Request: fold
Amino acid sequence: MKAKKKFGQNFLINEEIVKKIINSINYEKYNQIIEVGPGTGALSKHLLKKCNPVLIEIDEDAVSFLKKNISEKINIVQADFLKIDLNTLLNNKNAVIGNFPYNISTQILFKILDHKNKIQTIVGMFQKEVAERICSKPKSKKYGIISVLIQAYYNTEILFNVQKEHFSPQPKVESSVIKLRRNSIKKLKCDEKKFRKIVRISFNQRRKKLKNSLKTEIVDFKKIDLDLLNKRAEELSVENFVTLTNLIHQHES
Reply:
């Protein structure tokens, strides 16, 4: 099957890497495994030996290919993952796995965040630079909005890197497989919508100190912890952003 550029398809062709991805999940812990963008079924054929996965694939040709070459009885939903109602698919304990299309990989994660209390684990292939941003810690140049928003709810880990030649067609970038594990925080100790807003505004002007980048959000600077405001966004942990959100929220007019 020929890869389609509009769907961001780069098919994984190295069987050893496929097995490493498959073996990074303990299947007994989950009621359901969802594979996003199975393509030609490199992961799917191994998943079927472990469980009865739900495959979500947007490409009609890929769906036909999978049914013909993997299994006619495969549980596959032809849909755009970003538009599908996950509430119709999710059980209480779910894991998501996939060689994610790089052009929508961050959007996939943000959609997963909307269902974070039902999706305990994610194992996915990402562009290496994006993987590093997701997993970066404070005081790193790669630490940013997605780092904070994901790490607020998931523990992050880069499992291994994957070179270009292990795909067909070869992407222009290097890749990494990462694993996200749901942490114990069911809900942040602040207004989560305001938290996301504060994080985004803070990093949109990341070179500025927070007292400058957040000046439109703060009613009374005298009532806010100046120690936090004199720092830049990349210096703050998730807990710092929770504290800052509460301080700003408490003193809103």
